[in-house]
Amino acid sequence: MDTSSAISSGIDNKQVYHWKDGTPFELTRASVCTRTLSCEEEDIDALTTTTASTNDDVEDKAPKTSTEVTNKEEHVTSCTIRLMSEEEHLFETLIAAADAYENGIITVDNFENASLEKNSTSPTCVTPPPPGCHVSIRVAGGWVRDKILGSHSHDVDIALDTMSGVQFASIVQAYLHTLAQEGKIPKSQSNKKIGVISANPNQSKHLETATMKILNIECDFVNLRAEEVYEEHSRIPTQQTKQFGTPLEDALRRDFTVNSLFYNIRTKQVEDYTNRGLDDLLMHRMIVTPLDPHTTFHDDPLRVLRAIRFCVRYDLDLDTTLREAAMSKEVHHSLHIKVSRERVGKELEGMLTGKGAKP
Fold first, then answer.
1. Beta bridge partners of 35
2. Residues 8, 12, 13: CA angle, nearest 5 degrees
3. How far is CA 283 from CA 69, 72, 227, 287, in A?
4. Is residue 274 a contact partner of residue 256, using CB atoms and an 8 Å limit?
5. I want to staple 260 with a disulfide (CB 3.0 to 4.6 A). Which of 164, 244, 254, 280 is the partner?
6. Which neighbouring-strand residues pair with 31?
7. How many CB atoms neighbour CB 287 within 10 A?
8. Residue 134: how many other CB atoms lie within 10 Å
9. Is 6 strand, coil or helix?
């Protein structure tokens, strides 16, 4: 079975960013992909994804680096994500929970909130959805990267666009409780507590995260990240940072393009909002920052070490402009004053133990 469809996505607000040469630009549209869906007669479903630009303007505004291929038409044309049966069941459950919330079938009351750990700073109540509410559910970051590379990923990071991770986890919990009351699942599967990991940039946790084990899969829930505002001597975003971002804003705030890919579980599509994540992962085999690397590393200098660790782990190369930024005195100064020695040591350990490491 083969089906193809093209979609485009834009954002209403106009945020000014800068290319690597310092030229400012406004983000008004991102490209996603044309996909072809195919299925296999096993416990695994195969999703073959074909990339395409939604319009010529987006193609022209793709970030430029010294490693960009000369032939602008040369792009990754397909990739495959294989879902295990447990993952497929998980995604179906998340969609069903969101649909039940959108249709007013379930509500989050005191029973579910009582199962939430008390160290959350987000509101635990979930108000009834407004008319026409639609919750987009995307898997983000490492799971998508590893699946495209054909590796299994144990953790699933879910990114939400209309609510916090704690709120959506409460909706899923309420849905599972309803299924248990109806006898559709064992009660043991509905009594899962929601853990809360507070925002801690020193541990590369930039937003509060809700954790929950669903169908024996560890899931993290968090809202999409907006552009972050930092103090000069800190990796901690200030309160001026907007709470909810768009998929495009979130992708551009990621450390590297290979980690900026999304898998939309409703549409079963891989979304490449930087318009080069798939190319850098599968064709260029390169670690590249979505925005100017000097800005990226100054905001969070730990990413310098993470870049090296990812190169070791996945046998990738460092982008030339990234190398130059990593060697700058400004970035070295930021690394010295913003990152603890313990965190540096953890990253060094990862460099020495990756499959490509040669200590």
1. 5, 49
2. 130
3. 10, 13, 28, 12
4. no
5. 254
6. 8
7. 27
8. 11
9. coil
